[in-house]
Design a protein that fits this description.
About 55% of the residues lie in helices and about 10% in strands. By secondary structure, the chain is of the alpha/beta class. Helix 1 packs across helix 6 and helix 5 packs across helix 7.
């Protein structure tokens, strides 16, 4: 709850399931309410910080919805959520929901049956990400596996073997050992977003190397007071985590939560700006010159592919402009 506010949706869905199907004594346990008090106490610092910064966590919901719209939004949520469970897991998930509603042996756990259904409704309505509901999969899959094995009929054995075989084949052909030469690059972020697990792997070494080359190309007098600013918190994170290895200066980004980690010092008279937001850069920089390029063949478009590295001389002290630069999109 200090950094992620999805879990209350799970709590509420479980509470509704318990209220409908029981056992209602779960809601009367003192430990539950003592735990709730503890959650409020440890969440208080976050709530105070959020209130003092205009509730960025709540504003981020609209940003996430806009991003989801680029890959189909509500129309692709359910297929992608099921795909995230895997073939065999997806079957167990569906069987688990049915079994929790129908199986008398699983009657004490029937309150879990509503959990994935309510979460699906909530996250489709709010246009959340498909993996948001994945936290409930294990319990529901377990119910499905119990029901699946209660009657050891021969056809179930055949179906299980077939599902496992196909699942293994899918895993084999989708794992990272696939040769990069057999993978085609994509042209835009929408295409990359559909296969983010694939294209998100590439381009980070090229990003670091190109940024390090641009930094070393600066005159020594500029390097001592230089910092790096990136368009995306992805880029900032990738550069920051290997900063010492590549000999890079401090890394900043006005994007998402990274923007709240710190403001560039006013002494930063030279900035290496990594990104393509040229309009924003020109409004911030009195001088702006392209000095490097990141163009990994399989990189993520505008993140590790087709990205320019600029030398920027700031117009105003960073302490005066940084707060207005912060953005969640």
């Amino acid at each position: 709850m200090q950094v992620k506010w999805l879990i209350p949706f799970f709590w509420l869905a479980i509470a509704i399931g318990v209220a409908v199907y029981g056992p209602r004594e779960l809601l009367r346990r003192p430990a539950l309410w003592l735990g709730a008090v503890l959650v409020v106490v440890v969440t208080a610092p976050t709530l105070i910080w959020q209130a003092g910064h205009d509730w960025p966590q709540l504003r981020l919901g609209a940003v996430v919805a806009a991003e989801q719209a680029t890959i189909g939004g509500r129309y692709t949520w359910l297929p992608l959520a099921l795909a995230a469970a895997g073939l065999f897991g997806g079957v167990m998930l569906i069987v688990g929901i049915w079994a929790l509603f129908r199986s008398e042996s699983l009657r004490p756990y029937r309150f879990l049956a509503l959990l994935p259904l309510l979460l699906t409704v909530v996250f489709i309505v709010t246009n959340g990400r498909p993996y948001y509901a994945a936290g409930c999969y294990a319990a529901v899959m377990a119910a499905g596996a119990v029901r699946w094995t209660e009657n050891a009929r021969r056809w179930r054995i055949y179906v299980t073997v077939a599902l496992v075989a196909v699942s293994v084949a899918i895993a084999v052909f989708s794992m990272p050992w696939r040769s990069e030469s057999t993978i085609d690059p994509v042209d835009n972020q929408a295409e990359a977003g559909i296969q983010i697990g694939l294209y998100g792997r590439f381009g980070w070494p090229e990003l670091r190397a190109a940024t390090a080359d641009a930094y070393r190309a600066l005159p020594e007098s500029e390097r001592t007071k230089a910092v790096i600013i990136t368009d995306s918190y992805w880029q900032a994170s990738a550069l920051d985590v290997e900063r010492e290895h590549y000999g890079l200066p401090a890394v900043y980004s006005p994007n998402r939560g990274f923007g709240y980690f710190g403001t560039p010092p006013d002494s930063a008279a030279t900035v290496l700006w990594v990104g393509n937001a040229e309009e924003e850069m020109r409004s911030t920089c009195s001088e702006l010159t392209p000095i490097g390029r990141v163009d990994a063949r399989l990189g993520y478009p505008d993140v590790t592919r087709n990205v320019t590295i600029w030398r920027c001389t700031p117009r105003h002290p960073w302490s005066q402009v940084w707060a207005d630069m912060l953005r969640l999109d």
